[in-house]
Amino acid sequence: MSLASGSHRCHAAPAVPSRTEGVVHKRDMRPVLVATLLLACLAPLAGCGGPEAKTGLSYSADAQRAYQEALEEFNAHNWIEAQQLFREVKRKYAYSKFARLAELRIADADFEQEKYGDAIREYKQFVHDHRSDAEEVVYARSRIAEAQYREINESILLPASEERDQAATLESYKELRGFLHDYPDVKESKRVCELLEDVTIKLVRHELYVARFYLARDNFDATIGRVQYALRNYATDDPCSRGELHARMIESGGAGSANVPSVHAQDFGLAPEALLLLGETYLKMHRFGDARAAFGAILQRYPQSALILQAQNFLDFMRTQGV
């Protein structure tokens, strides 16, 4: 029995780890596993952090470089290639200032190719989309005004400008005046004033052409209406006042009668011509007082005009006729 008992003790089953010991072992491993996983996740992020930050910092520099490349083509007058590159700048760097500048250069390229309709549309879109960019908006508005001016067709194959429809000329006149009303003192105003003067001459010549047409048919009222319209609308208000040249008001003769509007002494050279035509018409109507006022206005307001002699001759004729 004792041997059997000893044998039994010698062959006893090995001890099995308790559940408590196993649980403790797993819990001890958790911090290690969590730390390993965190390191595995953070490692790629740390590796990518450098290039990502670098891209953000170089965004504006890349946009400027792309814009300059497009500008080189623009300055070389390679308009189509330049426009393609500027469109790429707009697409890739939409949030940079160079995207806005690219919009203007695209319109400029159309302007230089004499695609004035397209250029006007693009400049107007820029003004609509970027109202807060004051300097660029002024530039776009001035280019719209000049493009409208260039839309006036001056082909030698067409009749004289005063004989044609004035729709394009009137559009240009409105755009030029609108610019000067909004931006009277910017650097672009000088050029716009030059264009406005030329457009005003065209419009006055047209009115006088139509007035003579009516006068030749003894339609005196229509003649006077046209002449007075020209004087009141195109020769009495000068947004480009520049000292003696454009803003000198009459020094004698008062403000003018209701039938002889007072005008600025503009350098158009057409106000004396309009007044002479007005005087001739009044003379034919036997409205001698109004005729005398019109001829006298030329002598008083425009002493340097080449029409002084004609005005004086009419006055002398009236004097000899006792009227």
What does this structure look like?
The protein is built from twelve helices and no strands. 70% of the residues lie in helices and 0% in strands. The chain has a domain at 62-130. Helix 2 runs parallel beside helix 4 (97-112). It is an all-alpha fold.
- How much of the residues is beta strand, in percent? under 5%
How many E strands? 0
**Shape estimate:** elongated
Spell out the helices and strands N to C.
HHHHHHHHHHHH
**Largest sheet data:** none
| Helix share, percent | over 70%
Q: What class would the helix/strand composition place it in?
A: mainly alpha
Radius of gyration: 42 Å
**Which blocks of ≥5 consecutive residues have pLDDT under 50?**
1-14, 16-26, 41-54, 242-258, 262-268
SSE topology:
Elements: H1 2-10, H2 19-75, H3 79-92, H4 97-112, H5 116-129, H6 134-150, H7 167-182, H8 189-216, H9 220-234, H10 271-284, H11 288-301, H12 308-320
Keywords:
single chain; 323 residues; mainly alpha; elongated
Brief overview, please?
This protein is mainly alpha-helical. 70% of the residues lie in helices and 0% in strands.
